[in-house]
Amino acid sequence: MRLLLIVNTSASSVTARGRVVIHKALAADHDVTMAETSRRGHATRLAQGAAANGMDAVVVLGGDGTLNEAANGLAGSATALGVLPGGSTNVFARTIGLINDPIEATGQLLGGLATPTIRRIGLGSINGRYFLFHVGVGFDAAVVAQVERHSGLKRWAGHPLFVYAGFDTWFRHYDRTTPGFSVEFADGSKIADGYLAICLNTNPYTFLGNRPLNLGLGTGFDTALTLTTFRSLDFGTVLGVVAAAAWRPRRLERFKHVHRRRDLDKFVLRGLRPVPYQVDGDHLGDAETFVFRYEREVLNLVVPTA
Fold first, then answer.
1. pLDDT tens digits for 15-47?
2. Contacts for 45-52: CB closer than 8 Å, 24+ residues apart
3. Looking at the structure, do residues 108 and 184 belong to the same domain, yes or no?
4. In terms of domains, do 135 and 211 share one?
5. Which of 128, 259, 265, 300 gives a 20 to 30 Å CA spacing to 27?
């Protein structure tokens, strides 16, 4: 196969030695070209070029943000996306069954390329941008923004940095007194008082260490989108949802201030003021209108071996 290996050298788990080992392993059986990203959006342009040149697959060694960029460059094309975990959390890589170590995961990826096992999957989109696993609007995105302000610590602090940023944002950096947005569904129903919305294309939402936070059991490549809307950011509600998502996700239905809808093909969030949002873990700023859609069978994915 003709492969483009895209490497984000700034990602938390990417090392010089790892790049060499992975490149050699892929090149043993495939025609591999390697390219390093140098700025935000670069992976999208590299992936688009690979698809235009008829390459069989683009393999991404980087975090979830780099994967998202590559997926946006490949969506709608015949070129497949291959995944290797290179970030601090690697939500999508772990969701599809990859070991959370890039060198060991290379063996799983090679198994998927050898068959080859390619699956055409659906993606969510927000205002025209695709996402692989989730979008957060409101408080969740404000936490990601705080983490990115300390991006130099992500390689070393990892999950503790996210936990610290969560508490710091809740106490000091987010308006918890008034709703931030409303949600309008295709059937005419509406939520008028949203503080945090998490839209899932797959489950889990994220990982806390080795433990998945399951906000959308049953959500996957064969379903449309799942939306979880928090109508309160009461401390007990937030901690209760996190605990339930980590240990007993079926209890999430019991929270009266948490609204869940499944199998959504389209809905709209309207900000009552500019609201922060993040896509697959990358903070993208503030907006006031968010149009969500589900698009079926839009991306070829290399399925790793078990």
1. 999 999 999 999 999 999 999 998 999 999 999
2. 45/73, 46/4, 46/6, 46/70, 46/73, 47/4, 47/6, 47/71, 47/72, 47/73, 47/74, 47/79, 47/81, 48/73, 48/74, 50/4, 50/74, 50/79, 51/77, 51/78, 51/79
3. no
4. yes
5. 300
